[in-house]
Specification:
- The model is unreliable at about 1-10 and about 15-30 (pLDDT under 50).
- The chain has helices at about 45-60, 70-85, 115-120, 130-135; strands at about 15, 35-40, 90-100, 105-110, 140-145, 150-155.
- The chain is an alpha+beta fold.
- It has a six-stranded antiparallel sheet.
- β3 and β4 form a beta hairpin.
């Protein structure tokens, strides 16, 4: 059974712009979404395992045209990073599939800081964010209007 996401919004979180030192602002101008799902869990390593099962199930039921292994890797790495760096509290996941079959993966946590974002995404070290970027994910982050931050990955299916 998956942890409850009761009360968690399934739409994109309201993001505030951040300075270029912290990372790019939330990308705008997205097409209408076809499907949204939310998942929330205590910030533990087990959250990643449940989130991957949640994501794989939802994407399979939707027939998402992208690579589900890449999406599962992105979900796992984002959830592990959030649980590791936040320590306590809750981590949340929102998956959004768009009309163009793009997928937005958002992981939210209660810590508003992301020191070293540029270094984490630019490194060639085998870190979580580097793995996601190497798989073709576009990574951004933003401050949330209420509290904390969202780390976001956009994935696009390979052209047919």
């Amino acid at each position: 059974m998956f942890p409850s996401a009761a009360g968690l919004p399934t739409q994109q979180p309201l993001c505030l712009p951040v300075s270029s030192e912290q990372g790019p602002p939330h990308p705008g101008g997205t097409p209408d979404s076809l499907a949204n799902w939310a998942f929330a869990s205590p910030a533990t390593a087990g959250a990643a395992r449940f989130a991957v099962m949640f994501a794989r199930t939802r994407l399979a039921l939707t027939g998402w045209a992208g690579d589900q292994d890449i999406a599962a890797t992105a979900v796992k790495e984002l959830m592990l990073n959030a649980a590791h760096h936040v320590g306590t509290g809750e981590v949340s996941l929102i998956l959004t599939v768009y009309e163009d079959q793009g997928l937005l993966i958002q992981v939210m946590d209660e810590d508003p800081h992301f020191k070293g974002f540029d270094e984490a995404t630019a490194t060639t070290e085998p870190t979580g964010l580097h793995r996601i970027k190497a798989l073709g994910g576009e990574i951004t982050w933003c401050l949330l209007e209420q509290r904390g931050k969202a780390v976001q990955v956009r994935l696009h299916p390979a052209p047919q």
